[in-house]
Design goal:
Largest interface: A-B, 50 and 56 residues
Strand content of chain A: 15-25%
Structural class of chain B: mainly alpha
Oligomer: heterodimer
Distance between the termini of chain A: 55 Å
Strand content of chain B: under 5%
CATH class of the largest domain in chain B: Mainly Alpha
Chain lengths: 260, 180
């Protein structure tokens, strides 16, 4: 016989309930043996699926196929545009204008980068872009190691900061390696973790007391930032909030111990 | 590079791995899965201007799912047309489908009792919600957008998928001991 509360217990387990309803479901499970067994089963199933089932990543062949398809689509769109009759003055090579425009845009963006630190509003975009770039083939790590004593010293020569690094495999966050990125006018340290099928990039940079972006989600990615000493940390991933927050808390504890 | 493509590469392309995983879970053959993903990305690119709101991942995965369904329908239709009557025998609906190679290898190792095989035996609608919840970490609302069903249906399918795994574990002689 199925307990009437089982769907609520499942929803609480999946993090779908507000705090009050979740607490009610938890209280119910405490004295309902069936729901207690259900919770145990849910937990065990999740752990095993995340640990044992891996349908991997898109192969390089598939990535190349998609890129070729996009080339073909873009070229087809251009042909359609090109077929329209044009006034005579537009007959100069089409790329002349594009080139001039691109040069002007480049000069403008360089000027902005040289003159001003990123505004808090632009930082999330930069961080998400850096995360996405890191997922392109061959971009994830510069130093591959699950050993914090390899990853941390590597940053000394490659980034402007020395971030907290540790392997949290026991808690489900495997240290994969590190990478240097250029963000916010400085060499930023990116520490890469894996949680199940998800890659988590933890960026760290000199932030002083400058405000960091609030928690935000954009196109399926989550961003969470915090201060530790004068460093700013930002974790970016498509993992769930709970998972991202779990790593953030582990790193905060670690940084607190490091400075003591 | 034109603006549409730049935006597409920033918003949609990052979800290629998730698209590939869903296609692989749905159709179970790696090469068919790649075809489905490619088709889905083409449809997504052509329909990109119609994407509203921030959730590109659910939008893309819904397209992947539709591509899988139309590929399935197409295969069934073609399987019937050119063949004479005595060759029309369709594979039994529950015939074990070809499993991806890494799965085949691990199944050989664990004598057909791996979790991957148990999940592969689930009905497609349950397999899908289970993957989206446990592997892709999606909320009920996002899963509902992909599977194009109400949230209540997501919840009941998820519950059935999880209960079915428990039952198969029991039938397979108790819970298989954890690997590693």
């Amino acid at each position: 016989m199925q307990c009437a509360e089982s769907l609520a217990v499942q929803a609480a387990f999946d993090g779908e309930l507000d705090a009050v309803s979740a607490a009610a479901a938890e209280r119910h499970a405490e004295h309902c043996p069936e729901c207690r067994a259900l919770l145990e089963h849910l937990e065990r199933t999740r752990t095993r699926i995340r640990r044992e089932v891996d349908y991997g990543r898109a192969s390089p062949e598939l990535q190349a196929r998609i890129a070729r398809m996009l080339d073909a689509e873009a070229a087809a769109a251009k042909r359609v545009l090109g077929a329209a009759p044009r006034p005579a003055w537009r007959l100069r090579p089409f790329w002349l204008g594009t080139l001039a425009g691109a040069a002007a845009a480049l000069a403008a963006s360089l000027a902005v980068v040289m003159l001003a630190p990123l505004s808090p509003a632009a930082l999330p975009d930069e961080l998400l872009a850096a995360h996405v770039r890191s997922l392109m083939p061959g971009h994830l790590t510069d130093v591959v190691s699950t050993d914090r004593h390899t990853v941390k010293p590597w940053f000394a020569g490659h980034a402007d900061v020395s971030p907290a690094v540790a392997d949290f495999s026991a808690q489900g966050y495997r240290l994969v390696g590190g990478r240097a990125d250029y963000l916010d006018r400085q060499r930023v340290a990116a520490v890469v973790y894996e949680h199940g099928a998800h890659v988590i990039n933890v960026f760290s940079f000199a932030a002083g007391v400058r405000p960091l972006p609030a928690q935000l989600s954009r196109s399926g990615y989550h961003l969470e930032c915090w201060h530790a000493g004068d460093l700013g940390y930002c974790a970016v991933s498509d993992a769930g909030w709970e998972e991202l927050d779990g790593l953030a808390r582990l790193l905060q504890d670690l940084a607190a111990h490091d400075t003591r | 590079m034109d603006d549409k493509r730049t935006r597409f590469e920033a918003l949609v392309l990052p979800h290629l791995d998730a698209a590939q995983r869903l296609a692989r879970w749905l159709c179970r053959s790696p090469s068919d899965a790649d075809d489905i993903v490619q088709e889905a990305f083409m449809r997504a690119y052509r329909a990109f201007d119609s994407l509203r709101g921030p959730d590109a991942r659910s939008w893309l995965l819904a397209i992947v799912r539709n591509c899988h369904l139309s590929a399935l329908a197409e295969r069934r239709r073609r399987a019937y047309e050119p063949l004479t009557e005595e060759h029309q025998a369709q594979p039994a609906p529950h015939a074990p489908a070809a499993l991806p190679d890494p799965e085949r290898a691990s199944i050989a190792r664990d004598q057909g009792r791996t979790l991957a095989r148990l999940i592969a035996a689930l009905p497609e609608e349950q397999r899908e919600v289970l993957l989206l919840r446990e592997v892709e970490d999606m909320s009920y609302r996002e899963i509902a957008a992909v599977a194009q069903v109400p949230i209540g249906t997501v919840m009941s399918r998820l519950a059935r998928a999880r209960a079915a795994l428990k039952l198969t574990w029991l039938e397979a002689g108790g819970e298989p001991h954890a690997v590693r």
